[in-house]
Amino acid sequence: MELPTPPARPNLLFVFADEMRGSAMGCAGNTDVRTPALDGLARGGVRFTNAVANNAVCTPARGSILTGCWPQTHRALANDLPVDPGAPSIARALRAKGYRCGYIGKWHVGGMPRDRFIPPGAERLGFDDFWAAWNCAHRYLRPAYHLNDSPQPVVHEGRYEPEMQADLALEWVGSLGLDEPWCLFLSFGPPHEPYRPLPPGYEGTYDPNALTLRPNCPDTPEYRQDLADYYTHVTALDDQVARLLASLEGRGQLDSTLVVFTSDHGSMIGSHGRENKHSPWEEATVIPLLMRLPGTVPQGREDDALIGHPDLAPTLLSLMGVAPDRRMEGRDVSRRIRSAEGEGPDSVYLQAVICADQAAKDGLIEWRGVRTRGATYAANLRGPWLLYDNEADPYQLRNLVDEPSAAALRERMAGELKRWMAETNDRLEAKEVVLERYGLKRVWDERAATNRRLRAAGLPRG
Q1: Is 320 in contact with 258 (CB distance < 8 Å)?
Q2: CA 158 to CA 204: how far, in whole Å?
Q3: 3-state secondary structure of 335
Q4: 301-303 and 46-48 beta bridge pairing
Q5: DSSP secondary-structure letter at 436?
Q6: 14 partner at 20 to 30 Å CA-CA among 75, 171, 402, 456?
Q7: How many angstroms from the chain centroid is the CA of residue 240?
Q8: Taking the CA atoms of the chain, what radius of gyration do you get in angstroms?
Q9: Taking a C-beta distance cutoff of 8 angstroms, is the pair 270, 19 a contact?
Q10: Are 268 and 226 in contact (CB under 8 A)?
């Protein structure tokens, strides 16, 4: 089948949230949350039902999104470890083809401290034409960013951070000529905790008692309130997406722009009695992924292709008619997207190369896993850990890992995991061994010392 040709040098608007579950959209069948802009984006393009955060924690996930590589290659193996500045990146590939590339919002692949200025040059991974980013903070009513080459922060007291960031996006895109191709990554902090304070004007958007908790989540007032606040931020983000899409339409660029919406990972919010991420469960790993580019991406289709973060950069580049950097390790699934032909990949790899901080508090140790369309399997340092039949048990309430009736499924999934580990040159090892092998012990110790200082000062830490 002859594939459609993308528009000549389409723009790229890549918007991603932090800790947003794939189920937290109306278009995903959620009747509680209101996301009209995202629902419209899905109707105009493709929604992926099996999009996965391979490493469900911020820094490794973001490194893979930007570079198209696995954490063991881009080296940002855990929160607050710096990405390799020499890694390939989607922005570098596009700049080589004449694109203007900008980045707005949370960066979090720049090491420590979290307020560190990321200087112009290699550390920005090719986002050299506009920079309004902050390494990491979640102060949604006191947003700050470093603008271009200035180390002096710009601070907006009392403004909701995503609204301010959308303003910056509209200003920068609006400053470009209509014949200048551009790439903009817009990284929103919400709905990542802290959920309070809520976005101004959105108080009371959701009644906690009217919401539907997932069957694997204990019904407590705290989890209900957290979910209501979480959905409030999701709806506030949706309004900013609506502004972005309306501006592109007004400029006559909506149909010549590849629009992508996704997240770095999900969040447990009480499911299985947990509140963070770092884990193989669906709430942490399954993420939203919407793509729209008329004439290239089919309209109104749901696609069950298994697609992960390293796959995004090579896939998006191919959809835009740009050859991916050969050093990128993700799979190019653009043909599947454009033609809906073939089954696509059979599985997707899951990993926690280093379990630190919140993960350790949750009792997690280093693990690796694999997810197919129908099952999830994970093994940790102690051996086989989790096995779920996701078709029969979509909320993963029954762990089959020790059940004799599931022996054949366990063996098949364990074999697939072994194959993935060999393909990605990955090893399941304790944190201390990993740090020594990658030469990161000194950086890790410095990270720990910085976190101790932040803890003593009562400030957010990694």
Answers
A1: yes
A2: 19
A3: helix
A4: parallel
A5: H
A6: 75
A7: 18
A8: 21
A9: no
A10: no
Task: Name the nearest CA neighbour of 18 among 263, 275, 359, 196.
Answer: 263
Query: At residue 105, what are phi and psi to the nearest 5 degrees?
Result: 110, -155
Pairing of strands 46-48, 289-292: antiparallel
Per-residue H/E/C for 148-185: CCCCCEEECCCCCHHHHHHHHHHHHHHHCCCCCCEEEE
CA-angle at 268, arms to 230 and 331, nearest 5°: 105
Cα angle for residues 370, 45, 94 (degrees, 5° grid):
75
**Tens digits of residue pLDDT in 64-85:** 999 999 999 999 999 999 999 9
Question: Hey, what amino acid is at 257?
Answer: T
CA distances from 243 to 102, 186, 388 (A): 18, 13, 40
Residue 365 has pLDDT above 50, yes or no: yes
Beta bridge partner(s), residue 307: 51
Asked if 198 and 226 count as a contact pair (C-beta separation under 8 A), the reply is no
Handedness of CA 334, 340, 342, 346 (dihedral sign): positive
Q: What is the pLDDT of residues 268-279, one digit of tens each?
A: 999 999 988 999
**Using CA atoms, how far apart are residues 78 and 71, in angstroms rounded to an integer?**
8
The full DSSP string for 202-259 is -TTSS-GGGS---TTS---HHHHHHHHHHHHHHHHHHHHHHHHHHHHHHTT-GGGEEE
Distance of alpha carbon 5 from the chain centroid = 28
What does pTM read for this prediction?
0.96
- The sign one gets for the Cα dihedral 315, 320, 323, 327 is negative
Sign of the C-alpha dihedral computed for residues 292, 294, 296 and 300 taken in this order: positive
Q: Among positive and negative, which fits the CA dihedral 99, 102, 107, 113?
A: positive
Q: How far is it, in rounded angstroms, from Cα 443 to Cα 53? A: 25
pLDDT band at 462 (very low <50, low <70, confident <90, very high): very low
Going by their DSSP bridges, the two strands 11-18 and 182-191 should be labelled as parallel
The closest of 9, 4, 46, 86 to 322, measured between CA atoms, is 9
Please provide residue 201's backbone torsions phi and psi, each rounded to the nearest 5 degrees: 90, -5
